[in-house]
């Protein structure tokens, strides 16, 4: 039987620490500020934006949300980003993805000042992560690392396998595991004999976007299994990329969905916003 890593509990603990720090900053007259931009009316994105706003309020972080119509032009969006880049109240800017198809995601990401890029998607921040000398870590992979650390899982010398190579999860996740001295393999849709590779993993991270994709036969007994996936089943229920029922008896640690990695992503966003505010005010 695996130990269940409770992302909600870990997240609460870190959010309390963040709220304490925000309070200390407020005593110095500094209030971290986050701007969240949503273009269009994607229901899932609306929920994410609402959750981010609520999390900011609870942590004492100032937030602004811009819910723009789906026909907003790229120029209008870039003009808003320019305004926020120059607004001293705002330390973090987040453009909720996906953006409508008439807007070029890369252009938008590149326009956000690297100093306010709390998602860590800007090429400057991606480069810094590669080097290992970074200001911000991308929220979901950083959340995974925090869960591992809080569970006492040491990556050093371990076989780490990441299934998925997206720019927002798989690739940065692999870099963070590497910085923590894991021996890292990245798998993707062209990987041959996937189960053979995943079965080597002491730490297996699933970021595929396919419900119940990782089954017990793909997991080494005693492995730590982290499920990044968020998939909605036909019955409306959320499920991860890991077949929890079959993998849980095999693994030593496992994250559930919901309640595993999900809550950590917003927590890391708060952490990045706090970090940005401290940096802007030369506080270490
Ligand atoms: P992407 O769709 O961008 O990437 C999926 C990756 O999985 C790709 O690299 C793809 O390979 C790989 N893949 C697809 N099919 C297979 C296969 N059969 N075998 C091996 N690899 C495969 O997804 P994201 O990285 O954005 O997200 C992954 C999951 O994480 C999703 O469920 C998403 O909802 C969730 N997510 C959760 C977050 C959270 O807060 N918990 C935040 C962000 C995402 P290839 O590159 O070859 O196509």
Describe this structure in words.
There is one protein chain. The chain is an alpha/beta fold. Helices cover 41% and strands 15% of the residues. The chain has 10 helices and 11 strands. The strands form 3 sheets. The chain has a 6-stranded parallel sheet. A hairpin with a 5-residue loop joins strand 9 (231-232) and strand 10. The longest helix has 21 residues, at 7-27. It is globular and about 50 Å long. The termini are far apart. The relative contact order is 0.17. The model has no long low-confidence stretch (mean pLDDT 97). Bound molecules: NADPH dihydro-nicotinamide-adenine-dinucleotide phosphate (NDP). The site of NADPH dihydro-nicotinamide-adenine-dinucleotide phosphate (NDP) has 26 residues, from helix 10.
Mean pLDDT: 97
Task: Give the percentage of residues in beta strands.
Answer: 15-25%
User: Which segments are poorly predicted (pLDDT under 50) over 5 or more consecutive residues?
Assistant: none
Radius of gyration: 19 Å
Bound ions, cofactors and other small molecules, one mention each: NADPH dihydro-nicotinamide-adenine-dinucleotide phosphate
User: Got a strand count?
Assistant: 11
Task: Provide the succession of SSEs.
Answer: EHEHEHEHHHEHEHEEEEHEH
Class based on secondary structure composition and strand pairing:
alpha/beta
| Alpha plus pi helix count | 10
Helix content: 40-55%
Assign an overall shape: globular
Terminal CA distance: 42 Å
Record the strand order, biggest sheet: 1-11-8-7-5-6
Largest sheet data = 6 strands, parallel
